[in-house]
Amino acid sequence: MNAPVQTHPAGFSASDPWSGQTVVLGTMHGKEVAIAPAMASLGLHLVVPPGFDTDRFGTFTREIPRAGDQIEAARAKARAALDVTGARLALASEGSFGPHPAIPWIPANREIVLLLDARDGREYRGMAVSTKTCHEHAVVHTLAEAEAFAARLDFPRHALVARAGTDEHAPLLARGIGHLEALREHVSAGLRVASGVFLEVDLRAHLNPTRMAVIAEAARDLVRVLAARCPACGSPGFVAVARVPGLPCGDCGLPTRETLHEVLACEPCGASIEQRPPGALSVADPGRCDACNP
After folding, report:
1. Which of 258, 261, 259, 256 is nearest to 276 (CA)?
2. Rounded distance, CA 177 to CA 128, Å?
3. How many helices and strands, by DSSP H and E, does the chain display?
4. How far is Cα 84 from Cα 90, in angstroms, rounded to an integer?
5. Which residues contact 78 (CB under 8 A, 6 or more apart)?
């Protein structure tokens, strides 16, 4: 099958499976600010369950380890949101920080926004990876060092976490430090009982606008996924599930490990097609060729 993938960038029509529906977002950290505009573009009304505790699924400050991987954690939040509300549609997001998947020496933030449809159990995911991050840490021994560290991080727009000790597992002094007097107070308290204070950026979304922007990007990617329709049955979520290597080298012509085709597939009907990635080059850079650049 080689029919083009259908998309509906202006939003869903009245015949779409969840047109006019309410979607619940499992969050306690204000992520609706980043996600609601993307959902509104599809005609979905987003609500947040009151008192919904997402810290039980893991905290960036390591008091509660994340259960499972990033996708599993997002899925658990979405299911819990369904359980407490009885809704049909639930959203959740989960973030991680680490080496960039393609450029491992550069740090990156990877965000996933997941939509779960209780009617048929289908799951749709949007993703964004950004090298624009704010997740540094430092050990400080004076108030001046603490203030200099904060100044580099656009404080107080980005809040801080303080620990009484020199590593990330030292006793917690405070999270969400958002003004200079509080920073001075907690650092002074830490230095009275330890040789140094471990400071790090608070990665909770409502206190980290740099991360919140990446969540918004992932939400827009989810819109792209939902708008991609199967050319056979019209179901949403007709997106790449695999990549086929073999793009020929622009110099020697031999196949490389670069992507030649993407495989797009439909979960409900099983239809699939191969197509070139959008904007893909016709040949690979010789620098990516194992024959030319062993």
Report:
1. 261
2. 27
3. 5, 12
4. 11
5. 26, 90, 91, 92, 114, 115, 116
User: What proportions of the chain, in percent to the nearest 5, are helix, strand and coil?
Assistant: 25, 30, 45
Q: Residue 16 — pLDDT band, cuts 50, 70, 90?
A: low
All residues at 6 or more sequence positions from 45 whose CB lies less than 8 Å from its CB, including other chains:
20, 21, 22, 23, 39
Distance CA 293, CA 283 (A): 15
Answer for the pair 142, 235: CB distance below 8 angstroms, yes or no. no
> Is-contact 288 258, C-beta < 8 A?
yes
Which residues have a Cβ under 8 Å from the Cβ of 217 and sit 6 or more positions away?
111, 128, 130
Residue-wise pLDDT for 59-96, tens only, equals: 999 899 988 899 999 999 999 999 999 999 999 999 99
SS (H, E, C) 182-212: HHHHHHHHHHHHCCCEEEEECCCHHHCHHHH
Separation of alpha carbons 236 and 11, rounded Å: 12
Is 204:215 a contact under the CB 8 Å cutoff?
A: no
Can you give the pTM of this predicted structure? 0.88
Identify each DSSP E strand in 131-238 by its residue range. 137-140, 160-164, 172-177, 197-201
24, containing H or E segment: strand 22-25
- Residues 174, 186 contacting (CB under 8 angstroms): yes
Distance from C-alpha of 40 to C-alpha of 216, rounded to nearest angstrom:
13
Tell me: pLDDT of 227 over 80: yes
Measured distance CA(38)–CA(224) in Å, rounded: 10
For residue 111, what pLDDT band results from cuts at 50, 70 and 90? very high
How confident is the model at residue 12, as a pLDDT? 40
- Residue with structure tokens 């405070």? 174
